[in-house]
């Protein structure tokens, strides 16, 4: 008998199967990303976490998106499209503008990580185009000429996106945002009320204004200014 037989190789653990990239699609990836973006994790949209969520190697994402920027723009456009679902133009231009600027903001705030991106970018895709078309249609109904309608659109769109990006930042701050407001009020305790009577007496009122209340109030001011420009 040959006593020099090789020992059996130890049993190796089989690798955990991953989802085949061919089984993925842009919509599946975007759906998974939106679920991740619905939380308060500022790093929720890392390729590692997205890959784990879809059960695929993160490199599989590159089969469907050229880079992370393309993916994030697609996410932003999907959020706009979700906000536009069910939109019906109102009989008055003011109603349509208000509805568009409230519904799109609300959709973005469900996904704060996406909102912080959208405040700085344009997607150039279907959801954004539908939003722009609806806004311009309302301004045309109001009676604005094309050039002025473009100016008013920019004012309204930038107002909504910038404010919503700011609001999304507050959502991501969570409890820290409330702590900052409390610190604001406490810091004024050391300010001379004789020198700054209005600021000191009003700080608690100012800090107590909630973000959504503030946005709606500012939106009323904006729409009022637009109406005044028309001479209504």
Number of helices: 10
**CATH architectural category of the largest domain:** Orthogonal Bundle
Q: CATH superfamily of the largest domain, called what?
A: Tetracycline Repressor, domain 2
* Mean pLDDT reading: 89
Distance between the termini: 107 Å
Protein name: AcrR family transcriptional regulator
DNA-binding region: 46-65
Pfam families: TetR_C_1 (PF02909), TetR_N (PF00440)
Domain HTH tetR-type: 23-83
What can you see in these coordinates?
The chain has two domains: 10-65, no CATH class; 89-230, Tetracycline Repressor, domain 2 (Orthogonal Bundle), CATH 1.10.357.10. 65% of the residues lie in helices and 0% in strands. The longest helix has 28 residues, at 146-173. Helix 3 (68-84) packs across helix 6 (126-142). By secondary structure, it is mostly helical. The chain starts with 25 loop residues before the first helix and ends with a helix. The chain has helices at residues 26-37, 47-54, 68-84, 93-109, 112-118, 126-142, 146-173, 175-187, 197-208, 211-230. It comes from Paeniglutamicibacter sulfureus. InterPro entries: Homeodomain-like_sf (IPR009057), HTH-type_TetR-like_transc_reg (IPR050109), HTH_TetR (IPR001647), Repressor_TetR_C (IPR004111), Tet_transcr_reg_TetR (IPR003012), Tet_transcr_reg_TetR-rel_C_sf (IPR036271). Residues 23-83 form the HTH tetR-type domain. Residues 46-65 bind DNA.
Per-chain topology:
Layout: H1 26-37, H2 47-54, H3 68-84, H4 93-109, H5 112-118, H6 126-142, H7 146-173, H8 175-187, H9 197-208, H10 211-230
Helix pairs in contact: 1-2, 3-4, 3-5, 3-6, 4-6, 4-7, 4-10, 5-7, 6-7, 7-10, 8-9
